[in-house]
Write a structure and sequence with these properties.
Helix 1 packs antiparallel against helix 2, helix 2 packs across helix 3 and helix 4 crosses helix 9. A hairpin with a 6-residue loop joins strand 1 and strand 2. With 278 residues, the protein is mostly helical. The chain is 32% helix and 4% strand.
Length: 278
């Protein structure tokens, strides 16, 4: 795919802050993780500081600077795909095969742990050598043991205190928030299948009317740079579809009552897409 060089932007395209101020804004943005920060800084370097090359997009320069990972695959490809705006459901909402949450059905009686098999010491061996004297802990270790036993507290009986079943889960029910479209998972064990069916019927109408989920991942590159990001994201995530809320994370509605993040002035228009390999 041919790439065009990026011409020097007009003065009206430049933000009111310098490159160091842009770097400071990237570091102060609480939404930016360490790998996304590397991607943003690499693109900022390629756009503003790197030596201009004819016919080479700044995104391709950023791809070179980020290097390769195992298997000689460019890190840029993975980081760019990870920045595609999308909704990522919580881990508990996935159809997990292992480490599923415990059953949250109501508990009817206090939880009683299974009684362990009492320990029966082995009979003494008559042929075993007789020790000269019984072993005793040194005074400092004996004091630590006594202190540890005095401060020991049994684990919290969360099943009884929280009033939940707590057994291994088998049935999953997804509930969609009517305001944000985000998913909450409810898990139930095999004994509480009737409870899972009842909850499924309770949330059916709510789930059908829930809106498209607000994105909660990606969308940070459009906050700082202007480019044809939809084309770029589709190249690195072929099955990705743009959300109806827009590509820029600054434009997404707030999922809670917190203050919406401050919009960042775009640094520069990137004409080339930077797609393809070197």
């Amino acid at each position: 795919m041919p790439l065009r060089s990026v011409p020097d932007p007009a003065e009206e395209q430049r933000p009111n802050r310098s490159f160091p101020e842009l770097v400071a804004a990237i570091y102060e943005d609480p939404r930016v993780g360490h790998e996304t920060r590397e991607l943003l800084l690499a693109v900022a370097y390629a756009v503003d500081l790197a030596k201009r090359e004819d016919g080479v997009s700044p995104l391709r320069v950023a791809r070179r600077k980020l290097g390769v990972e195992r298997g000689r695959k460019a890190r840029y490809d993975r980081l760019m795909a990870a920045d595609a705006p999308r909704y990522e459901p919580p881990e508990s909402a996935r159809n997990l095969q292992f480490d599923r949450p415990f059953c949250e059905a109501p508990r009817l009686r206090p939880y009683r742990p299974r009684q362990a098999v009492p320990y029966v010491p082995a009979p003494p061996d008559p042929d075993a050598p007789v020790p000269i004297r019984p072993y005793t802990l040194p005074p400092e270790l004996a004091a630590l043991k006594e202190e540890a036993m005095a401060n020991y507290k049994p684990p919290r009986d969360w099943r009884t205190e929280d009033g939940v079943c707590g057994a291994a889960s088998h049935h999953r029910v997804l509930e969609k928030d009517p305001r944000t479209g985000w998913v909450t998972a409810h898990w139930f064990c095999k004994r509480h299948k009737d409870h899972a069916d009842r909850v499924t019927e309770q949330v059916r109408a709510q789930n059908e009317q829930a809106p498209e989920p607000i994105p909660n991942s990606g969308g940070l590159l459009p906050c700082y740079f202007n480019a044809d990001w939809e084309r770029v994201y589709k190249h690195y995530r072929p099955r990705w579809e743009p959300p109806s809320y827009g590509l820029c994370a600054d434009d997404w509605p707030a999922a809670d009552d917190a203050v919406r993040p401050t919009k960042h002035s775009r640094m520069r228009i990137i004409v080339g897409s930077g797609l393809g390999d070197e």
